[in-house]
Every structure is written in C-alpha cells, then in structure tokens.
Structures
1.
Amino acid sequence: MKNVTDSFVSLGRWPSAGSFGLNTDILATNPINLSVVLGVLIFFGKGVLSDLLDNRKNRILNTIRNSEELRGGAVEFLEKARDRLRKMEIEADQFRVNGYSEIEREKLNLINSTSNILEQLENYKNETIYFEQQRAINQVRLRVFQQALQVALGTLNSCLTNELHLRTISANIGMFRTMKEITD
C-alpha cells in the first residue's frame, strides 16, 4: 500500500526533462491508468451515454403511452362489448318470455279450437241421432198406419155390404143436410 501512495506523491516530483520510461509496477500504475480511462470515458462518453439513455427513456415512454392508448381502446371496446352483451341478454330474455307466452297462447288457442270442434261434432252427432230417431219413428208410424189402414180396409171390406154401405151414405147425407139447415 505504501507503493500506491508513493506513486501519487511522486507525481508531483517528476523531473521536467529527462527520459521517458515505463513504470512496470502494476500496483502503482493501475489506479492511474484506470482514473485516466474513466476520466476520458466520462468526458467523451457522457454525451453518447446520455443520448443512449434518453433514447431508451423515450422508447420506454412511447411504449407506455402506446400501451395506455391500447389499454384505453381495449377498455372502451370491452365496455361496448359488455353493453352489447347486456342488450343481447335482455333481448334474448324478451324473446324467451315472448316465445313462452306465444307457445302458451297457441296452446290455449289449439285447446279452445279443439274443444269447439269437439262440441260441434257432438252437436252434429246428436242432431244426426235425433234425425235418425225421427226418421225411424216416422217409418214406424207409417208402417203402423199402413197396417192399420190395411186392417181397417180388410175389416170394412169383410163387414161392409151394399146395404150397409147405402145406409152409411144416407146417414152421412142426412147429417150434412141438418148441418146446412142449422147454418142457414
């Protein structure tokens, strides 16, 4: 350590004229060389280093600004997408509710329509049954009337003789004359 301090002290005592030589003592010359190199680097490299640092700082700031702008755009896009999603969910709920109500309405309409059709068919069936009953009753009446008429004609033909026939006609003519006289 003494050599290091001696080399700095000896700087002030160098002869102004004389020989030029190399000092081979590494410990004595190394701090001097380092201080000279650092001084030159600081003096000349200061501008380059500050330019490099300024460029790096500007690039970082630009990247941050761009990132902030992109983040702002992404946040805005996300908010718009959320708004659209909310609107679409509301619209889907409305479609779902409207669809369910439309299905229920159509179901009720179908039930009512089917009920009306069944009621009409029941009425047609009852009318048809009534018509067929009336027709059957009329046919039975007609047949009974025909049979009664045949029996009456048979009875009349077997019981009615010419004399009885003439007396019946005379009695009826007499009743008509009496009725005519009463009315006149």
2.
Amino acid sequence: ADAVTTGRAVWLAEDGRKDAPAGAFTQDFLFDLGVPQFPTDSFAPVNDVRFEAGSEAVAVTIERPLGIVFEEKVDGIYTKIVVDEIVPGSNAEKNGDVRVGDVLRITTAVFNVPGVVDVTAWLNPPKSTNCKAFFNCEQKSFDKVMSAIQSHVVPVDTPDGPMTIGEVGLVLERPAKK
C-alpha cells in the first residue's frame, strides 16, 4: 500500500509561546495523530515545551525517507540528539527547514497499544492497535530515539484497515548563534 501523507504532522500552536525566566520560553505544539478520515478531531496538543534563551522552536514535517544524519552529543550530564548532516538531494534538504546543529526534541512515532482486557473480555481479548503518537526525545537514548523515527514503517490501524504514514513530524530546537 502507498504511504499516506497529510501535509502537516506537527506545527506551532497559535499564540503558544510564553516567556520563561532568564530569557527562555515555552512553546505549545499541535500534532496530527490521525489519518485523513479523521482530519478534525485528531490533533493532540503538547504544551509548555521549554526552549533555551535565544533559541528558536521549529516544527517540521518531512516525507520519508528523511535524509538526516543524527548524532548523540553530551551536554553536561545529559545527552541530546543533534542534526549532524543533511543528505544532499534528500527530503530534508528539499524541505529546507532543518539545519545542521538543530536539536531533536520531539518526533512522531508509531506505538503498539495493547487492547484493554476486562472481566467480560478475558476469553476473547481485544487485539493490540498500532497508533500514531509523539515521542519526547529529551534524555532518551540515541537508540530509542532512532527506533521512534524508524517506527513510521509500521502501518497505523484505521477503521479502513492498516495505513502507512509517509511523513515524520519533528520538533527541533535551533540553538542561539554564539
């Protein structure tokens, strides 16, 4: 089956920026976690993502394959996932919104959610479902973050059957220029 693209997996919420102490700020985002059959009721807000002073919040939707090389970098006691390279001719380069040095904060992902089993369903438990969701990359291992990005190859379950999502939503922090 062909992969479906919705055009926008994540975006900055209107009026979602709030000042924080020491020049930092928080930003709200909206993630489209649905599929084309449910375009109006499938937006999930992610509120108050904190960004450093002077940095920029970037929300980008890129078709797969991305064409981004990520690298794990140590920052004090924490690690962060940073854009190390943008592959020439790739979807990321064509998109134009990703830059070397951007820090990956959140990505969309596909998760397998087990069906809820209660007393009345123990003989015939519901099957698990693949759902599109967002994955917070903060303080996560490089392997877990890369697995979240790679999970987009797994079809999402819909009422019309499995559907492969053809794009990835990324929230990036563009550090202040030093």
3.
Amino acid sequence: MFRGVAVVVALVAVTLYLSVGHESQYIFTPEEMKAIAGEAIAKGEGDIDKVVELVVGKLRAAHPEFIEPAGEWIFNNAGGAMGSMLILHASFSEYVIIFGTAIGTEGHTGRFLADDYFTILHGEQWAHSAGTLQKEVYTPGDQHFLPRGTSKQYKMPEECWALEYARGNIPSMMPFGLFDTFFSTLDVVTLGQTVMTSAKAMLQNAVLKGKI
C-alpha cells in the first residue's frame, strides 16, 4: 500500500517537474527586459544605483502583482563565481534578478533546462565557449543569451551589474545555485536567505496567484 502511494506521488512529482517551462506560463519577455534596461541606462547616466532603481520601478509598474516588494541583497556563489543578487521575481517557470559584483568575478555559467538572458546595466561581461579562440564582450545595453542546454566560461573583469531573466524549468537550476555553499563556502546564512526568499516567492506565486 505504502509503496503504491509512494510510486504515485513520485510520478506526480516528476510530471509536475517536467511540465514546468512552457510558453503559456511566461509573463515576462527577453525583449521587455532589454527595453527596460536600455531606458534605465539612458536615464541613469552611469549612476548604477539610479539605474537599478529605475529598472526595479519600471518592472514593478509593468507587473505590480509579480515583482517582489523591496527585498535584501543576498550573496550568491555558483560555478566558482561570487556576486550578490536582488530577487525581483521567482516562480517555477521564470526568475528575474539584479546580479553583479563591485569588484569582479569569474566562473562557469551552469548548464540548465532554461534559457537565460543577461542584460548588462553597468560594466562589462566577458564570455568564452569551448572551441572558440576569441572572447565575447558584452557592454551596457547588450543582452547575453545562453540557450538551454549550453554553458560557457564567463568573467566580470571589474565592477559589473546586470538584469538577469531566466525562463524554463527553474527548479532544475537550484542545485547549481546552492552547491558551492555545501562544498566550498559553508555560508549557511546566505543559504538560508536564498532558500527562504526563493521558496516563499515561488509558493506565493503558485498558490496565491496561480503563476507557475
């Protein structure tokens, strides 16, 4: 009896996991992110604090129900790189964050069941795909697209901030975002902040707003 129930629960969980990340579940678009970033960069005139404030304000005006209220910045260690992030939206099929560093970092992008759009707000990001001999360079207003199933090496040589938007199977990205904590930093405070903020937003969007 117990084994049968366990099998059913497992099948339901797998079905729900695999059903995440379809066009009908998305409320944001890469084009919107690029447009909002471009407007904020133009009005911010190089002041990153002002640019971030403008980006958050424009997103909140466009999606008042789905952009998180003012939250706290959280460190993020993933793929060997370190930066900090401000979570603006987290659901099972999408996330929107401000991510970056004031001093530079370098690491692995990860390889996901999701598309990732990284729109530069300030500074530069460099990237390298295996087999290419020249680096890619992304500057303010550029959108670095990482298709699902692919990966790169990336570097922010100095201060760099970006508006990051991912769409697809977001739960599949979580291990990459957390494993450095278990096997390197052991920063349980950051782990707790990341899990609590992400899980709370995902569940609220799914249960209270019907947003997968």
